[in-house]
Amino acid sequence: MPATDLPLLIDAALEAGKIATRYSGPQAQRWDKPGGAGPVTEADLAVNAMLESELQTARPDYGWLSEETEDSPDRLSCDRVFVIDPIDGTRSFAEGSRTWAHSLAVAERGEVTAAVIYLPLRDLLYAAAKEQGATLNGTGIHVSGSVHLSEAEILAAKPNLDPHHWRSKTAPDFRRVYRPSLAYRMALVAQGRFDGMLTLRPSWEWDIAAGDLILREAGGRCTDRLGQPLRFNNAHPRLNGVVAAGSDVHASLRDRLDPNGAGIPA
Prior knowledge:
Elements: H1 5-20, E1 30-32, E2 39-41, H2 42-58, E3 63-66, E4 80-88, H3 90-95, E5 101-108, E6 111-119, E7 124-129, E8 134-136, E9 139-140, E10 153-155, E11 175-177, H4 182-191, E12 196-199, E13 203-204, H5 205-217, E14 221-223, E15 238-239, E16 242-245, H6 247-256
Parallel strand pairs: 3-4, 10-11, 10-12
Antiparallel strand pairs: 1-2, 4-5, 5-6, 6-7, 7-8, 8-9, 12-16, 13-15, 14-16
């Protein structure tokens, strides 16, 4: 990984925040994507245009994968690829909430090596580079310590408690909490604010690439719902859910999940 990849992502995320905050969420033009793929606003598109121009100019040999750019198979031949969500939590942005984020990552041969999650309206910048630890606003962060699953606070949407996902046909008795941005949920676990997070439905790479590295560099485990390491820049850029936590809570969640429940939406 070039030593300048992380500073490049940090600078780009800060500039993205300046662009996005020029828009007033509820007043920003908004469209619904085809096929029920969710909303997009003029702010998403403006941020994406800047990031694509700036990052690809700085690294012309890197591939490009972004929620707001039509995908191209050209990225599959690149050793390194940018994995970008210009605004993660677009619905929250459009509602005027502060809980949305810019999520930027570089993946090298499938593994994320540099990552930033930035929430401009909360002044939170999470960052990590491979084997260099994870930070929040420049200060080191770490996942929470060992805790029994029944005492854990887990970030998860309510459908993840569906009985079909769990071996006992009953979800574990943890305390469920929720935040709209998937990237922010992962960052909060890396920070130690919560003990774990899970999403058991297929997940787009751009939602989780940055959080994967930040969590792992903060001492956590981050896998798909079957316990497999996350790999990025796949031909179909969707992964089999995410389970992320400190090692003990992660193991407890994985022991309770039913592997035959994979593929059930959550």
